[in-house]
Write a structure and sequence with these properties.
The complex is a heterodimer of chains A (about 350) and B (about 100).
Chain A lengths: L1 H23 L6 H11 L2 H31 L2 H8 L2 H29 L2 H9 L1 H11 L7 H17 L1 H9 L5 H25 L4 H26 L4 H5 L5 H28 L1 H8 L2 H12 L6 H18 L20
Helix pairs in contact in A: 1-13, 1-14, 1-15, 2-3, 3-5, 3-11, 3-13, 4-11, 5-6, 5-10, 5-11, 6-9, 6-10, 7-10, 7-14, 8-14, 8-16, 11-13, 13-14
Chain B lengths: L6 H11 L4 E3 H11 L6 H17 L2 E8 L10 E7 L1 H13 L4
Antiparallel strand pairs in B: 1-3, 2-3
Helix pairs in contact in B: 1-4, 2-3
Classes of the chains: A mainly alpha (about 350), B alpha+beta (about 100).
Chain lengths: ~350, ~100
């Protein structure tokens, strides 16, 4: 369990760091020129959505590159080959996880950011462990102790508190539009389902292998379906994709892929050891680390709600961490005769 | 049936075939090391042991006994664990057999 908690906390830290290149990439060429170009021929909203889709597709592509290097280091290529062939038993779950986590959840987050606000998007994303917890208990039959459940609730309250100021401002500003709320819902459902579906495949797969297959699937979805559709609709996506080879843009995209890839490595390693609910909840501490790193590297200001949120997140983590290991040695309820040591 | 399949598939089968469904981690890992040439060295051994820990967390096998490896059978100073396959593990193995794509 302690290894699992360490993995989940590492995930939160690296996911938080990801927001720094994730913020920077929006102000880089060729993305800015592409946005201006599409704004001139279509609309500002269309330009924003297309840019979000292209950045997410590139993010997934650079994650696969990162994971390729990672898999050379951990020597899992043969196991990937053995696992990917088992489409009914493993790969179908990772394909579904990819569809939920990439095009649905990340696109939803971008829609929520663009059409309501960043505060709302962050809060919406932080609620996803509820879906993950419910699915893990009902579908995967993973057990949940009262203490762990309490810890999850406290961490989620902490996450919501961190972005409370932004949330209130977004909702009361009068600029919010329905598409943004749909985006928020897509993020919650997408990430929540991803965790549970991936955990089903992870039961019988190696976590590094599962993750690599999941991102190969996501890259396929982007470059074989979504990006070609954008090209057919007349958006100059291909033209600007071929212009990403500027050293600064490549560097930022590489850091983007490295941080997101590594956060997913630790996230997927946490699921088999902690269960989906606890793994997702601890992973959602990224909200806390994101505001800290954005403050340190980008200078974005923070409010008192951050301190309250941070205190709640730390308390919730402590509550989970102090659960007796014997109670959650197995994620599933064993027969009474089968109780572990 | 599960030879050459993903390692957790094969682990489940080996435990289901073991006497009383029980085996020490080092015994079963030795069998795996002979079958999978990418897990033959010390690093591979540790990867396989980690897979067993994940399977125990999933409820497919359970720890019956533990002892310190004083003789260096597996890795000197490490914990040796005796696992037994559970009913959940046997059900999972049945599901795997139904959907398995042969080599």
């Amino acid at each position: 369990m302690k290894i699992g908690i360490t993995c989940a906390l590492l995930c939160a830290v690296v996911w938080g760091i990801w927001y720094v290149p994730g913020d920077l990439v929006w102000s880089l060429e060729p993305f800015v020129s592409m946005m201006n170009d599409i704004e001139g021929t279509h609309s500002k909203d269309a330009a924003f959505i297309v840019m979000a889709l292209l950045i997410t597709a590139l993010n997934a592509t650079f994650i696969v590159l990162t994971l390729s290097v990672w898999n050379i280091g951990v020597r899992k290529f043969k196991e990937i080959k053995r696992t990917i062939r088992q489409t009914k038993l493993t790969t179908k779950y990772f394909f579904f996880a990819a569809a939920c986590g990439g095009p649905i959840a990340i696109t939803g987050t971008f829609l929520a950011t663009g059409f309501v606000g960043a505060g709302f998007a962050a809060c919406a994303s932080l609620v996803y462990p509820i879906i993950g917890t419910v699915l893990s208990m009902t579908w995967l039959k993973q057990k949940m102790t009262r203490r762990i459940f309490l810890g999850i609730l406290i961490v989620m309250l902490g996450g919501l508190s961190i972005y409370a100021g932004g949330l209130i401002e977004d909702i009361t500003s009068g600029n919010a539009r329905p598409l943004g709320y749909i985006g928020g819902l897509m993020a919650v459902i997408g990430w929540g389902i991803e965790g549970a579906v991936a955990a089903k495949g992870l039961d019988v797969s190696d976590s590094d292998v599962a993750l690599t297959i999941r991102f190969i699937m996501e890259v396929a979805i982007w470059w074989l379906f979504i990006i070609p559709i954008l090209i057919l609709l007349g958006f100059p996506v291909l033209k600007y994709t071929l212009m990403i080879f500027d050293p600064i843009t490549l560097l930022v995209l590489t850091v983007l892929g490295f941080t997101f890839g590594f956060s997913y490595v630790t996230w997927y390693r946490a699921f088999p050891l902690l269960g989906v609910g606890m793994g997702q909840s601890l992973g959602s501490l990224y909200g806390l680390f994101a505001v800290v790193f954005l403050f340190l590297f980008v200078g974005q200001g923070q409010s008192w709600t951050l301190l309250l949120g941070a205190a709640l997140c730390i308390t919730g983590t402590f509550v989970m961490f102090t659960e007796k290991t014997s109670r959650i040695e197995s994620l599933r309820e064993l027969d009474s005769k089968e109780e572990s040591l | 049936m599960m030879e050459g399949m993903p390692v957790k598939f094969r682990f489940l089968e080996l435990y289901s075939e073991a006497e009383n469904g029980e085996a020490w981690n080092y015994e079963i890992i030795d069998v795996m090391k002979n079958e999978y040439d990418d897990f033959k060295d010390d690093y591979g051994r540790n990867v396989l042991n980690y897979a067993l820990i994940e399977m125990a967390a999933s409820g497919f096998i359970r720890a019956l006994d533990m002892k310190e490896d004083v003789e260096g059978i597996f890795r000197k100073g490490s914990i040796l664990t005796l696992y037994r396959i559970t009913n959940i593990g046997l059900e999972q193995l049945d599901d795997l057999k139904k959907g398995l794509k042969p080599r």
